[in-house]
Amino acid sequence: MTDTADATGTDLTTDTTLAEIVRRHPGSPRILEAHALDYCGGGRRSLAEAAGAAGIDPAVVLDDLAATEPEPVPDWDGLGPAELADHIEGTHHAYLHAELGRLSALAAKVAGVHGDRHPELHEVARLYEALRADLEPHLLKEERVLFPMIRELAVADAPPSFHCGSLRNPISVMMGEHDTAGDLLERLRAATGGYATPADGCASYQALYEGLAQVEADTHLHVHKENNVLFPAVVALEDRLAAAG
Hints:
Number of strands: 2
Number of domains: 2
Radius of gyration: 20 Å
Number of helices: 8
Shape: globular
Oligomer: single chain
Distance between the termini: 44 Å
Helix content: 55-70%
């Protein structure tokens, strides 16, 4: 077993899950992104499992993690379910609400100008619109349905009577939609060649690819916080209230 120490001095090994690496090593998302390791939808896999599936030596990933500069513990670490839902909505949802429309217009503009020389841009624009069509209603369902129920659960003395029954049910739906978004992001990365602007690309072309890369990184962290932190905490809280009743 190979191990190292992260920026906080906590040992990481090849048996550590990707989700736990992100929680314990604040600088790890960009390292895992660089190695194309899925820490949001695939966060329950160990580093050894994920790296093996990707054909990567996990020891190289551990070395890269050990070489990163120390970063402070993120401000969302340790929040309760209601507070974490507030954080996600105020941070990631707010970012997507502001960015998704802007990138739609930019993708259409760049495809219109450069699409003859770079026909892949039409596929990029199509994939991006599919991603937007998946994310926007997803955000609203969380804001109007799931997150209010999480806040109600957080202050309850007994399990509330929700129309959906257990919160496991809407959580399962949200996680399925996360998988769809993850697949679209993976296809966008492939279609853009890793968001590499070609030599003849203009400033708008570069701005589009930089924006898409940022959406990918932000959405991966967003999904990690929900799949691997918020949702397990909500299920555990629901179970404790049921047991106490």
